[in-house]
Write a structure and sequence with these properties.
The chain is mainly beta. It has one domain. The chain is 5% helix and 47% strand. β14 and β15 form a beta hairpin. The chain is globular. The relative contact order is 0.10.
Length: 162
Amino acid sequence: MINFQMRTRREEKKGTGGNLKTPKKVDSITTFLGSDASIEGTIDFTGTIRLDGNVKGIIKSNSGTVIVGEKAVIKADIIVDTAIIMGQVHGLIDAKDRIEVYPPGSVVGDIKAPVISIDPGVKFTGSCAMKNRIIQSGKESQPLKQIPENGQEKIEKNPENL
């Protein structure tokens, strides 16, 4: 029997004195892999998937969110829209939107996303790259450019992005 319970942000704060940072709100979970399950191969999904078991292979989605639970052990490359990590991941994480890693999570591998959040207490071994976010029109945003000013470098946005 699978027992899955979601708590609201207010319940989280009430139980911890309001100091616990909660993950970004995600759509309802459409697929769930329990802690007693193991999969080897490719998981290709849409919507939101929560993984609490063991996965070896590739996890991918064009517009989905993967949530790696605290008990999960993932030995796979993850290519998704959003990745929320609270368990163990060994492999590349490439997200179009964002990557969030919370304790007791650990990541061994490279991570790439426009927005990356790693909380204190997380174990991370690898390289981290912030990439440009793709705008809805399909055109990538322009990178920030550095303009020297009085011996110091000032960073400003390109006027084309405004």
